[in-house]
C-alpha cells in the first residue's frame, strides 16, 4: 500500500488525525511529496482571504474607503508579473467589478499603487487640487528613463510644494527650488497664447519643407516607400524637433532623431528598471542622445545673443525657442543641477514632445488612407469648409481651428481614444485625499490608465455592439440632430454635469462633434491642472498634418495588414507592429474641389 494511503478509516471516511498518522514520514520521498502537496495551501488561503475582502469591500462599501486590494496568490510579488508583462489584458481585468470600472489597489513587489478608474472617479481626480502634481512620476522617469544623475534628483524629490503658484502650506521648499511649479509655468507659457501660435507656425513651415524633400513640388509621380510610420517619424519628427528646439540640435548630431525613435522603443525596458547588461545597445543610444543634447547646449551657450531672437519674438537659431532659454535659466538655479542634469531634463521634454504627437498623427492618417471612401468624404469636407485652399492645397491654420470639419475632429478624437495607452500618475504628499467616494492614502501612488477608460463598454456608444470599443469608428464622436442614440456616450447613461468642449461646426442638419459628458472618460491628455501642457500644440499639429496630407496628396496603403504593438503600453500612443508600405504623390492644385 502506498504510504499516502489512509490506514485509519472510520465509517464516514478517514479522520484528519488518522490521515496525518498514516503518512510514513521516515520515507524522505514521501515527505517531499507531502511538502509539495501542501505548499500551495498558504498561497491559496492568502488568495481566498484576499478575494473575500475584495468582494466584501465592493458589496458592502463604506463611505470613503481605501480601494480594496486585488487578490493575488503570492504575497510580496502580488500582481507584478501580469502588471509588467500582460499589461493591457491585466488592466482591463483588474479594474472591472460587475461590469463597472472601479478603483483598485495593486500589490507590486511589496509596495502598492492605486488604480483609480471609472469616469466619475477619474473626473473627481482631475478636480482635486491636492492631486494636481505629477512630480512623483516625473522624478521616477528622470532617474530611470532619462538618466538624470542622483545628485540632481534630490531637489525633485524634495519638492513637495506642488505645481500651483501658491506653495502647499506644509511645504518649506525655497522658491527657486520649486522645480515642479517653475517648469510647469514655462510649459504653460510655451504652449499657450502667442507661444503656441508661433511654435505651430514654425513646425508646419518645416513640415512643408520636409515633405518637399520627399515628394518635390511640381512632380506628380508616385513615390513608393516601405513604411508610412518611418516616413511620418522622419518628416513630422524633424518638424516638431526643429520647430521647438531649433536647427542646431539636429545639425550637430545628425543621428539624433533616429536615436530618439530607438530610445522610444526601449523606454518600457528602462521603466521596468532593466539593467545595462541586459540591454547595452539601449543604454548606448541613450548615452548618444544625452551627449547630443550636451553638445547642443554647449554650442548655444557659446553663441546665443539676445539679437539672435527672430521676428516672432520666440525662436533663435541656437536654443531654438524661449521655452528652452527659460528652462536653462530656471533649472540652473535649482540645487544640485549641472549641465548633465539639464541634458537629462531636456531629453525628457524632447521625448514627451515628439513621441506621442508623431504616432498619433500617423494613426490618424492611416485610418483615413486605409479607407478610400473616408478619404474622399473628408477631402470633400476640407475643401467645402474652406479649411484647405483649392489652389495651394494647403490648410489655413486659423480656418482649420475655427471651422474644423466635425468629421475630422471625430477621427482625431477616435484615434486618440483607440490608441492612447498611458498611465497618468498623481500622489498627495501631505494628507489622505478623498475623491469620488474613495480614499487615496497620503504619499501613495494613484494611477489612471487611459486605455481602461477608453475601452469602458459601460460608457462608450457602440450602437448596440455594431462598433465595438476596440475598433476604429470615424463617427463615434458625431451627434446627428434628430437621430436618437448618436454621439459618443451610450444612450442609456446620464451625461452628468460635465462638459469638456463646445460642439464644433453646428450647421443645421449636419452632424456636430461632441465631447459632452466625457470628462473622465476621454482622457488622452490626462486631466486637471497637470494635464498634458502640449495638448493644444498636439491637436493643432495632428489636424494640420492630416488636412495637409488629405488635401494635397494621394496616399495608397499597400497592405491590408494592421496589427498594433502593445510593447509600449502605459507610456503613450500605440504604433503599428509591422511596416506599412505605401505610395504617395502630390495632387494637382484646383483638382481638390469635390462636391
Ligand atoms: C498626441 C500627443 C500627446 C499626448 C497623447 C500626450 C499625453 C500626455 C499625458 C497623458 C500626459 C500626462 C498628463 C497628466 O499627468 O495628467 C502628458 C504629460 C506631458 N506632456 Fe504630453 N502628450 C502629447 C503631446 C505632447 C506634446 C506635443 C508636448 C510638448 C510639446 C507634450 C509635453 C508633455 C509634458 C512636458 C508632460 C509632462 C508635464 C508635467 O511635468 O506635468 N506632450 N502628455
In brief:
With about 600 residues, the chain is an alpha+beta fold.
Q: Strands of the largest sheet, in order across it?
A: 5-6-11-8-16
The total of beta strands comes to: 18
User: How many strands, what sense, and barrel or not for the largest sheet?
Assistant: 5 strands, mixed
Number of helices: 22
Ligands and ions found = protoporphyrin IX containing FE
Shape: globular
Low-confidence stretches: 1-16, 497-506, 591-595
What share of residues is helical? 40-55%
Strand content of the residues, in percent?
5-15%
If you compute it from the alpha carbons, what radius of gyration comes out, rounded to the nearest whole angstrom?
27 Å
Distance between the ends: 89 Å
Oligomer: single chain
Average pLDDT metric: 90
| SSE-based structural type | alpha+beta
